[in-house]
Write a structure and sequence with these properties.
This protein is globular. The chain is 31% helix and 24% strand. It contains eleven helices and 13 strands. The protein has 288 residues and is an alpha/beta fold. Strands 8-11-9-10-12 form a five-stranded mixed beta barrel. Strands 2-3 form a two-stranded antiparallel sheet. Strands 7-13 form a two-stranded antiparallel ribbon. Strand 9 and strand 10 (183-191) form a beta hairpin. The structure holds uridine 5'-triphosphate (UTP). Residues 9-16, 26, 55, 104, 107-110, 112-113, 130-132, 257 line the site of uridine 5'-triphosphate.
Length: 288
């Protein structure tokens, strides 16, 4: 089965980034020279995704505008012979009809955000990408996961080891049988456990491949940790019905939903790009 559809939940309020996110969506904050969301979008494109579904909320229409054609801006750039800028805009254009937007009317949690896109998914396996998790890797993370999924179809989540003092920020998994170097079975998953209750230090991070079966438990609107409708709880309830795998991706993940995480990512990405490395190194030298 090839994964053709991806959901991008972008309806959150980004409270940890206030006041930057008072009027600018968190997903539109810049990482070097592109919005955070653009990175997850390109990762999905690289994985062969053809239909992109944004779960958005009121006041964040800059997100869908970013992926629109902007004919006036392009004509101005052409007239002024700003070829590089024009090419940069063309490079991020999408085909007409590739993007759909559904609304999540209330921020009831990630599980609820995914559920809001159910009518666009129908009977296919699909991907979910949380754009504030930005992953720097040789092969884009979702592409790695799609290859693993072809060998072992089922629900799949990207996993990463975290420090004991951080387990209460994540969904934490109880790993089962190792299938190969990067894929392992998941016996259980618990949202935001206290360290003493955590089944391991393996955290779920924001890349998923999901069976449409996930909409059945999500239909119940059960509240979990923090009073939110958790995707983690829906995944846990399908264990035994749908195979469930963790995938230890190759790459480095940045939490761009926090102020220092976004700064860290900006430094790492600027240092890793040919066109920005030297200048970034010179800036950093000033602070040593
Ligand atoms: P986060 O919890 O990181 O995002 O959810 P948030 O709620 O915007 O951030 P804070 O905690 O207030 O700072 C991860 C992703 O899930 C989306 C968010 O937009 C983010 O991309 N999300 C979360 C929704 O779409 N709906 C929700 O109800 C919750």
């Amino acid at each position: 089965v090839k994964i053709k559809k991806a959901i991008f939940p972008v309806a959150g309020m980004g409270t940890r980034m206030l006041p930057a996110t008072k009027v600018i969506p968190k997903e539109m904050l810049p990482l070097v020279d592109k919005p955070i969301l653009q990175y997850a979008f390109e990762e999905a494109q690289a994985a062969g995704i053809e239909e992109f579904i944004f779960v958005n909320s009121a006041g964040k229409t800059a997100i869908e505008d970013h992926f629109d054609a902007a004919p006036y801006l392009k004509s101005v750039l052409a007239k002024k012979q700003k070829h590089n800028e024009l090419e940069a805009l063309k490079a991020i254009e999408t085909a007409p009809g590739q993007i759909s937007v559904v609304r999540q009317p209330y921020s009831l949690g990630l599980g609820h955000a995914v559920w809001c896109a159910r009518q666009l998914i129908k009977d296919d396996y699909f991907a979910v990408l949380l754009p504030d998790d930005v992953i720097q890797s040789d092969t884009p993370c979702l592409q790695q996961m799609c290859a693993a999924f072809e060998k072992n179809p089922g629900n799949m989540v990207a996993t990463m080891e975290v420090a004991t003092e951080h387990v209460s920020r994540y969904g934490i998994i109880k790993p089962g049988t190792q299938i190969n170097l990067r894929t392992h079975e998941i016996l259980n998953i618990v949202e935001k456990p206290q360290p003493e209750q955590a089944p391991s230090r393996m955290a779920a991070i924001g890349r998923y491949i999901l069976s449409p079966e996930i909409f059945k438990p999500l239909d119940d609107h059960q509240q979990g940790a923090g009073g939110e409708i958790q995707l983690t709880d829906a995944l846990a309830s399908l264990i035994g019905t749908v195979p469930f795998y963790g995938f230890c991706f190759e790459g480095k993940r940045f939490d761009c939903g926090t102020k220092m995480g976004l700064l860290d990512a900006n430094i790492a990405f600027a240092l890793s790009r040919e066109d920005t490395r030297l200048e970034a190194e010179n800036i950093l030298k000033k602070y040593r």
